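Side project, low priority. Logging it here so it doesn't get lost.
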Amino acid sequence: MKSTQTKISALVLAAGQSTRMGQPKMLLPWGETTVLGQVLTTLRRSGLEEILVVTGAEREAVEKICASYGAQTAHNEEFVSSEMLSSLQVGIRWLMQQTNARAAALVCLGDQPQAQERTVRGVLKCFLEGESALVAPSRNMRRGHPWLVARPLWGEILALRAPASPRDFLNGRANEIEYFAAESDSIFADVDTPEEYRNARATGEK
């Protein structure tokens, strides 16, 4: 079991250019807030006190949303030319300056407003009560988001170079991952296209 002093920070990846959506998806309406706002709401309700959002496109508007939720931000200067790994590394570097050895990052997607509080809490509980440095939600033998990585493995993520991806990191340590059994397919869902956004709002908006 991990120490109760272990600091878990949410690391939200929100630097994408929304190319497939055709408009900034983090800013799209969702319930009484926005797509990103819903993600931050879920994380706050799950008990996470420190939230870091990695920004890219629409930086000022995204930072304004983050400020309203008391979330910190770190900007990925290379968001136009880079992939998800770059944003993850920006976030990890920021967290390494703020935390001690007993730390972990819950890696979340900024375009996953369907994420459920019970899943977040389940992943956190699984990590704190288990022995693994890696925890991920799974359903029907598939891994999803958000996943959690403890600080001893952060250096390995920082050492990756494109075209490697976070998935490659997880696949490389697949036998070490402790899985939390999620109760819905929300761990796979995001909103990349207008159709996905419309369908998600129709069926899952909170």
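Brief comment: The first helix runs from residue 35 to 45.
Revisit when time allows.
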